[in-house]
Design a protein that fits this description.
The protein is α/β, with parallel strands linked by helices and about 160 residues long. The chain has 2 domains: about 70 residues, Transcription elongation factor, GreA/GreB, N-terminal domain (Helix Hairpins, Orthogonal Bundle), CATH 1.10.287.180; about 60 residues, Transcription elongation factor, GreA/GreB, C-terminal domain (Chitinase A, domain 3, Roll). The protein is about 40% helix and about 25% strand. The protein has a 5-stranded mixed β-sheet with strand order 5-4-3-7-6. The chain has a two-stranded parallel ribbon with strand order 1-2. It is elongated, with a radius of gyration of 21 Å.
C-alpha cells in the first residue's frame, strides 16, 4: 500500500496543472521532435534524436511521479484554527538572538519548496513546529546545528 502524501489544496492544484502541461503540451512536443529526428536518418550519431529521447524519458518519469503523488494525496484543508501548528499552517518564527521574523507554510514533503517559504512537516524545523502553540520556544536539529526559535504567530 502506498504511503499517504499530504498536500494542501493549492499544492494539489499546482501538481495537477504541471501534470496537465506535461501530458497535453510537453509530451506531444517531444513526440514531434522525435519524429523530426527520426526523419533525419542515421540515429546512432543524431544528437537531436538522443536529446529528444532523454527529454522524453524525463517527462514520462515526471508524469508517472505526479500521477502517483496525486493518486495517494490526502488533501489537507486549513480549517482556520490557529491554536497549534499543523500541515497547512502559516507560522511566523523568530530565531533566538535575531530581530528578524521568518514566515513558513507547513506543507507535505511533495510540495515543499524552501525558496517559496514552504517547508515540509518532515523537515527538521517543520517537525519541531508540528503541534506547537503560539509563544512556544522550540529547538530544531538542522544540518547546520541546533537552532532555537520562538513561535510568534500561527495562521
Amino acid at each position: 500500500m502506498t504511503e499517504p502524501v499530504y498536500l494542501t489544496s493549492e499544492g494539489a492544484a499546482d501538481l495537477q496543472q504541471e501534470l496537465d502541461n506535461l501530458v497535453k503540451v510537453r509530451r506531444p512536443e517531444l513526440a514531434a521532435k522525435l519524429k523530426e529526428a527520426v526523419a533525419q536518418g542515421d540515429l546512432k550519431e543524431n544528437a537531436d534524436y538522443h536529446d529528444a529521447k532523454e527529454q522524453q524519458a524525463f517527462v514520462e518519469g515526471r508524469i508517472q511521479y505526479l500521477e502517483n503523488i496525486l493518486r495517494a494525496a490526502v488533501i489537507i484543508q486549513n480549517d482556520g484554527r490557529k491554536d497549534e501548528v499543523r500541515i497547512g499552517s502559516q507560522v511566523t518564527i523568530r530565531e533566538e538572538g535575531t530581530d528578524d521574523d521568518e514566515t513558513y507554510m507547513i506543507v507535505g514533503a511533495a510540495e515543499a519548496n524552501p525558496r517559496e517559504g514552504k517547508i515540509s512537516h518532515e523537515s527538521p524545523i517543520g517537525s519541531a513546529l508540528m503541534g506547537r502553540k503560539r509563544g512556544d520556544s522550540v529547538k530544531a536539529k538542522t544540518p547546520a546545528g541546533e537552532i532555537s526559535f520562538k513561535i510568534r504567530k500561527i495562521n
